[in-house]
Amino acid sequence: MSEQRIVWLDHKEARIFQVAPDPRARDVVQAPLHSTHHRHPGSNAEPHPQDEQHFFAKIVALLHGADAVLLVGPSTAKLHFVNYLHGKALALAHHIVGVETVDHPTDGQLVAYAQAYFAHGHPAARAVS
Questions:
Q1: Which residues lie closer than 8 Å to 120 by C-beta, 6 or more apart?
Q2: Hey, which end of the chain has fewer CB within 10 Å, N or C?
Q3: Phi, psi (rounded to 5 degrees) for 69
Q4: How many other CB atoms are there within 10 angstroms of residue 53's CB atom?
Q5: In the chain, which ranges are continuous DSSP H helix?
Q6: The domain 4-32+48-128 belongs to what CATH superfamily?
Q7: Are 55 and 32 within 8 A, CB to CB?
Q8: In Å, what is the CA distance from 117 to each residue of 33, 43, 51, 121?
Q9: Is the Cβ–Cβ distance between 14 and 28 less than 8 Å?
Q10: Distances (CA, A) of 19 to 32, 117, 129
Q11: Where are the domains of the chain?
Q12: pTM
């Protein structure tokens, strides 16, 4: 059976669920919180440019072996992740079957959404199952 996964992603964390064959498998990756630099005293802290790269690399490592990946989330982080994949993990980019905007569901809602998507959703998702 193919491995289907859903990744809920924002700029703070990623929640990764295996949808098939075992919908109970779950991982959480936290984005770096403390790695910031300052332009000068009194300026606002900004994320270090490498923080996002490290965050995305951890997600890629957890998606190893996935045949189909659905990316969801409320913000632009999922689009930044797709761009990262095209530059750093092209093999995984070919397994992305959809990118959807989803607010802040519970874990159960997220798994149910993914199961419905893979069962009835995008043609590429059906072709993998």
A1: 126
A2: N
A3: -130, 130
A4: 13
A5: 49-62, 77-88, 90-93, 107-120, 123-128
A6: eRF1 domain 2 (3.30.420.60)
A7: yes
A8: 32, 44, 31, 4
A9: yes
A10: 26, 10, 11
A11: 4-32+48-128
A12: 0.81
Distance CA 94, CA 84 (A): 13
Tokens of 21: 């064959």
pLDDT tens track for 67-100: 999 999 998 999 999 999 999 999 999 999 999 9
The length of the chain is: 129
Rg (CA), the chain: 16
Angstrom CA distances, 35 to 32, 43, 81, 89, 107, stand at 6, 15, 19, 24, 28
Contacts of 54 (CB under 8 A, 6+ apart): 32
